[in-house]
Amino acid sequence: MKRASIIFSAVVALGAGGLGTMALLPPSGAHAVAEAASQNALKTETFNIEKMTCATCPITVKKAIGKVSGVSSVDVDFQAKTAKVTFDPKRTNESAIASASTNAGYPAKIAAAQ
């Protein structure tokens, strides 16, 4: 009888441990759909950046724009004098992003659509 109790306890413990790991799984159902929609709500805009004259200028521009709340990525192209910025339009806008670069000494404007 004691042996059966030990086996039963072990099975219950393993089962409970397995349920605990389910909380570590990625979100599913409605929550996953809402999270995916949130990711799709991101916007990407290209800005023309003025006064970049050396190889360290893009670092300053990237840091300044990256500090804007809602910006998720910044890719600065020194040769083209542009910055491609991905951001959440619910948390920031193009004007705030351009101002961040301008305040760092590198005036920025939204690039014309091509």
Write a concise synopsis of the structure shown.
The protein is an alpha+beta fold. Helix content is 46%, strand content 20%.
Give the helices and strands, then pairings.
Layout: H1 2-22, H2 29-40, E1 43-49, H3 57-66, E2 71-77, E3 82-87, H4 94-103, E4 108-110
Antiparallel strand pairs: 1-3, 1-4, 2-3
Strand order of the largest sheet: 2-3-1-4
**Which residues form runs of ≥5 with pLDDT under 50?**
18-25
Provide the succession of SSEs: HHEHEEHE
What's the main sheet like? 4 strands, antiparallel
Helix tally equals 4
- Class derived from helix and strand content: alpha+beta
CATH architecture label of the largest domain: 2-Layer Sandwich
Helix proportion range? 40-55%
Number of DSSP-assigned strands: 4
- Please tell me the overall pLDDT: 81
CATH class of the largest domain: Alpha Beta
Instruction: Report strand %.
Output: 15-25%
Query: How many independent structural domains?
Result: 2
Query: What best-fitting shape do the alpha-carbon axes yield?
Result: elongated
- Kindly provide the radius of gyration, computed on alpha-carbon positions and rounded to a whole number of angstroms: 25 Å
CATH topology of the largest domain: Alpha-Beta Plaits
Q: Ends: how far apart? A: 80 Å
